[in-house]
Amino acid sequence: MRGEGVLLSWRPIPGLCDDESAEIHRWNRARRRKTIVSLGGASFFASVSLAPDGNNNSDDKIQETFPRAEQLIKHPLALLALFPKDLTLFSAGAIAGALSKTLTAPLDRVKLLMQTHGLRGSGSKGIALLEAITLIHKEEGIKGYWKGNLPQVIRIIPYSAVQLFAYEIYKKILRNEDGDLSVIGRLIAGACAGMTSTFVTYPLDVLRLRLAVEPGCRTMSQVAFNMLREEGIASFYCGLGPSLIGIAPYIAVNFCIFDLMKKSLPEKYQKRPETSLATALVSATVATLMCYPLDTVRRQMQMKGSPFNSVFDALPGIVERDGFLGLYRGFVPNALKSLPSSSIRLTAFDTVKGLITASQKELERIMEENQLS
Predict the structure, then answer these.
(1) How big is the CA angle at 126 (ends 120 and 132), to the nearest 5 degrees?
(2) Please, which of 67, 136, 189, 322 could form a disulfide with 170 given CB 3.0 to 4.6 Å?
């Protein structure tokens, strides 16, 4: 029995007590003692014992049914179920994010150079894709394409993990009483997840940009100390407003389309990795087209000496200087980078969720077999 107390009921035994009415008393389980009760001058002993609640031997039962070493070797998938689910999901998002950023770092560096070239004092309004690729190789060699990748990887590990994990949490919060999640709920969950991860890791994003585009900076620590000394701590959050505005619709649209497309497919196709990859490509493409101008605004506001103080200054300022296409400078390398990057992250995360479910079923099956044997 469970609870703070146990409700004890008894009735007089015929011939031992003349009182036919029932008496109900509270018995404190913590004392665990026999109680002597007197009713109407007659007395009798009430011998009380607690029925097992099924948990007294739970540790022994778990030890008996827990998979043995040889069983885990034979069924390695069950090992995954031994780790906390939340930790597994968090780690999967981190690893997938780091891998995707490292593989696409050259295109990201080219994109950043194209977005900010007009502010570097070169006298040029912009730089083309091939020119940016050639310029990086000429000035810095092959390693130049991965310049700034370390702080990007350091940033993307918590960023990707927090974003994907937070999305799952927000979806649980926003589900209705029937457990369903509306399209609006998915959009809100994606927007909140994007803003949460952006706010947590934004200083690392600013450091990565400065390291990638400003000459003379060798390490992330040098950039950080120079920013603190010359511009103050507020410089680490320059452009945060447009970043939050830009990331919220991007992640909302990206994750929402991904979920809805997968849900609309026949069940036999939903769990396939290639399905996740294809739906992730479509969702990332639509989201990127919609939200890229805000990313350009954010990057130019992050630059040292930027003439723009707000999104409302930057948007017309960039259009006036570079034309409407200036808002989409670097879009091609960004698309080439973000599409596989987003696809890798979402596919890996979706695959791990499927593996977690399968591992839990495998562990339960082994434990049931051990219980019956």
Answers:
(1) 85
(2) 189
**Which token pair is 4?**
């703070």
Backbone phi, psi, residue 26, to 5°: -90, 135
Instruction: For residue range 359-371, list pLDDT tens digits in order.
Output: 888 888 888 888 7
The answer on pLDDT for 60 being more than 70 is no
C-alpha span between 330 and 115 (Å, rounded): 6
**From CA 81, how far away is CA 78, in angstroms rounded?**
5
**Alpha carbons 361 and 349: distance in angstroms, whole number:** 19
Decide: helix, strand or coil at residue 177: coil
Check: CB of residue 300 under 8 Å from CB of residue 318: yes
Angle, helix 149-174 to helix 85-103, in steps of 10 degrees: 140
Pairing relationship of beta strands 42-46 and 35-39 according to DSSP bridges: antiparallel
pLDDT tens by residue, 302-336: 777 778 877 788 888 888 888 888 888 888 777 77
DSSP string, 109-124: HHHHHHHHGGGTTSS-
CB under 8 Å to 316, separation ≥6 — which residues? Answer: none
Check residues 354 and 195 and name the one with the higher pLDDT. Answer: 195
pLDDT band of residue 49 (cuts 50, 70, 90) is very low
Provide the 10 A C-beta neighbour count for residue 307. Answer: 12
Q: What are phi and psi of 226, to 5 degrees?
A: -65, -40
Buried-state track 115-134, b at ≥16 Cβ within 10 A, e below 16: bbbbbeeeeeebbebeebbe
Q: How far apart are CA 322 and CA 296, in angstroms?
A: 12
Q: Which residues pair with residue 35 across a beta bridge?
A: 46
CA-based nearest residue to 319, from 304, 300, 337, 302: 300
Instruction: List the alpha helices (DSSP H) in the chain.
Output: 58-65, 69-74, 77-80, 85-103, 105-116, 129-140, 149-174, 183-213, 220-230, 240-264, 267-270, 273-302, 311-322, 331-372
Question: What does the pLDDT read at residue 125?
Answer: 59
Give the pLDDT confidence of 208-217 residue by residue, as tens digits: 778 777 666 5
